[in-house]
Design a protein that fits this description.
The complex is a heterodimer of chains A (516) and B (338). With 516 residues, chain A is of the alpha+beta class. Chain A is built from 16 helices and 18 strands. In chain A, 53% of the residues are buried. Chain B is mainly α and 338 residues long. Classes of the chains: A alpha+beta (516), B mainly alpha (338).
Chain lengths: 516, 338
Amino acid sequence: MQDKIKAGRRSFLAGGAAALAASMLPMRELLAQGADQDTLIISYPNDVPSWDPTALTLPSAQSIYATVFDTPLRYSPDLKLEPMQISKWEWQDSTKQRLAITLHEGITFHDGSKLTMDDVKWSLLEHPAQDAKLAIRGMFPTLKDVEISSPTQAVLVYSKPTPTAPIFLGFLAAFILPSQYIKKVGMDGFLAKPIGAGPYRIVQYQRGSRLVLEAYDGYWGKKPAIKNVVFLFTPEASSRVALVESKRATLATGLPIREAQRLGKTPGITSEIYPISTMYMVKVPSYVKPFENDNVRKALHLAIDKSALSRALYAGKAVPLSVVAIKNSPAHVDDYVFPYNQKLAMQLLEKEGYSLKNPVKITLFTTNGTFPNDYDMARVLASMWKKVGIDAAVEVTTAAKAMEQSHNQKMTGLMLYNWANATGDPDNGAGRILDPRLRFSMWRDASLGPRIDHLFSEVDEAKRIAGYRELLKEASEKSWVIPLLQGVDTLAHDSRCNVPLQGNGYISPRLYSWKK
Amino acid sequence: MLRTPLTVLLQRLLAGIPILVLLSLVVFVVLRALPSDPLGMMLPPSATRAEAQALSAALGLDKPLYVQFYIWLEKALGGDLGHSFLYQQSVVLLIAKALPVTLELVLVALCIALVISFPLALFAYSLYGKRWGVVPDTIVVVMQSIPAFLWGLLFIALFGVFFPVLPFSGQIGPDYHLPTITGFMLLDTLLLHNGPAFRDALAHMVLPACALALGFCPLVVRVLRSCLIEASREPYVMVARLRGVPARRILLRYIQKNALLPTITMIGVQFGFLFGSALLIEIIFSFPGIGSLMVSAVKSNDLPLIQGVTIVFGVLMVLINAVVDTLYVVLNPLLRDH
């Protein structure tokens, strides 16, 4: 038996030695990652689903698309529309159906070929016409022609007044693709080896793992300060934290709020929790009892202490909203504040026969992990409502499931939702959220349709904005939708790197640089 | 009838075909019965319900369920598992790129698990009934109590952050731009005779594979130890001892050989579950494998991709079970004659 023991021990020790040897694989070059001043390593939560940037309107993919493809127009960090590939744009008519645009001189794709108005026409009009599945179709539904007068000049012709047309040239899915290259290699060839006209060209891509980019020498605009950019796709938040904490990544985004706060106290790391152009809100289904009741809806709204929500869950950085528009956006109603008033909420509920002993029972649906602290916010909302006589059961759902139920008018409760509006324009906010004909809308008041149509085609900008402000105020006052907070994003980065923040939360490597 | 390993393998593979058809039918029906919108990711915010219906028709989602299944099955038999809604690419192509990543991770994890488990089981067996027998038991209980993903997070904290000696994101560092040959990163770096790339890929593999392996070890250790104890009580072991055969020889030649049979069966069965654990490990360590693909597909309700990945998992299970049954016949001659 003793022999047996020795044999077992020897085997165990030998195995242990082998395991130890296997773990002694550290390489100095691995540790050097992230320290190279020519390279920026970004730990990013999402990969791009497809290399056709016109196929999907996925906000999380826009940062990468804009880096590789550039955008016709862009939004400044404080959300002002600025020239980009299009240097000039102006309406030719008073009905706002003919938008003259001029391209910058000297824009080339990564294969060296010139970007011309032919590419613009193909990307915005012809390509979407060929494929019913492309999301860009829905972004330019009234665009009927692109009249080309020269390689850099054209007129976008709309079938009806479209005063907000320019904003869609700096929004989701609006990217100019290399039409000649795609015709030559086919769409599958393009998807396998995509080229754009952005400041960085693709060097290597491994789906779901990483994207290696290099500054494009032929870029028409200001050359990026950092030559190489690597996106590491890291879906797990704790791995992103570890990457930036161990300095293997220069920058990580989408971090849990508490981790961002902790990393901010770590020497050599700067963290940011900053408001972006998204809105957290509670969507109300008009077709579900008791939400058709004005007093119940208003009580729901009055019982929410939005400042407390921000302090408890977002380090006080999420700005409380009284209307579904972010602060400093055109349609925000600066002089309007929806109050927090528990007493009034209880009085309104009492009128409808509800009390603390006989609470109104509702369901609040929420996602878990779709935006920061979503599930926690739902639970806090439920506890706030409980104090006034509203018994809310919190149920976790998925965005896809909620979409299906909203589409078929089968929502059975409220929905906590995050609405991204990278433009800040009310057309992309209240204009969508309250339009009863759209799938996103849960408040199905048919009379709002014509009202929104009118605002969509209102050519007088002052009247358009005034109309939206009126609509936003009424929607909040009557609680058709309950605005909560302006969304926040988080990032942490190597303190030696300059990282200007963007109001829409996008990552823009072209603007980053190493401190001297 | 004589049962050769080859006939067993063929029988098991043929028996897997109806299982796969049934599996595909169940998954197909369940996915479409779920109240979830597969078009959610594809439509812009401005899409009307009419536009959603038009897109649904373009994707064939408006047809009766049995028609949709017939079309899918017909194409699947021809090797076409459809087009991913999310990635806008062939499902087969997506799976072909992701599968080698998972297979490599799981196989390396299995090797590590066996390298750890076998000596540990022998060690535990050698201390069985003794005061120090509690040591291997404790090690096993600790390993068993911590799930694979938690090992992953612990390893990242320990070897990635506090003692930053190993990488923990992706399969290889961004400095290496290698052409894909087989899709198995370690194998590809060897085929390309690229030593530094191989070392880098191996370093990237250590933490995820160890995390996966440690979740697998306790089962192997427990089963092998029990089988060793059981086999050591057999009359032929007693006879061998009486004949003066050295204890080491008895252990390795007689006891271990017989204890291996049930252990191999258990390893085969549990090997399938390693793929399930790999799902979270791939997410944590950013491995672009089939688990990551499945998570993305489920999140966006990408029906063709979920269906495709599920079928591939099904095929893997059928193959693993067939190989285990065959191996059992190879190792146990008694099973070959009827």
